[in-house]
Design goal:
It is a single chain. This protein has about 140 residues and is an alpha+beta fold. Helix content is about 30%, strand content about 30%. The chain has five helices and six strands, in the order ββαβαβββααα. The protein starts with 9 loop residues before the first strand and ends with a helix. The mean pLDDT is about 90.
């Protein structure tokens, strides 16, 4: 399945790291090094209505930008084609809230946001998965 049916923004879980992605273009653009390094290997994606998918395969489509996406360091910015498989799990807002709040405690980079306290309160009181993801997506 292709990623078109995803409801954005989405929450991505790779190993112990979570991050949000605002658009399909952002989800499918990366670097060749990140693709080789396994960025999409077993990547779990939870969309704004709570449906979970897993990336079953990712392959390079083309370079993005001038010089076919290559920069001075010979890394290449690329567009990837993703195959997503639904896992059958639908996350509730409480489950997504728990994932996000756990990441708040585990990665202190969140605290660099000037609105971090308001963000925590917003996530704690959000009524839906979509609302939580919109709050944490910059």
């Amino acid at each position: 399945m292709t990623p078109e049916p995803l409801n954005f923004p989405v929450l991505c879980i790779h190993k112990a790291t979570i991050f949000t992605v605002r658009t399909l273009d952002a989800l499918t653009s990366t670097t060749a090094a990140a693709l080789r390094g396994g960025l999409f290997t077993k990547l779990r994606v939870i969309d704004s209505i709570g449906v979970e998918y897993v990336v079953s395969s990712a392959k390079k489509l083309k370079g993005i930008g001038p010089f076919f996406g290559y920069n001075l360091f010979l890394n290449q910015r690329i567009r990837v084609a993703l195959d997503l498989e639904p896992t059958g799990k639908v996350f509730s807002s409480d489950e997504v809230r728990a994932l996000v709040l756990k990441d708040f405690r585990g990665w202190h980079g969140w605290e660099s946001r000037d609105d971090f306290d308001q963000l925590k309160q917003g996530v704690a009181s959000a009524a839906s998965v979509g609302e939580i993801l919109r709050l944490v997506t910059r």
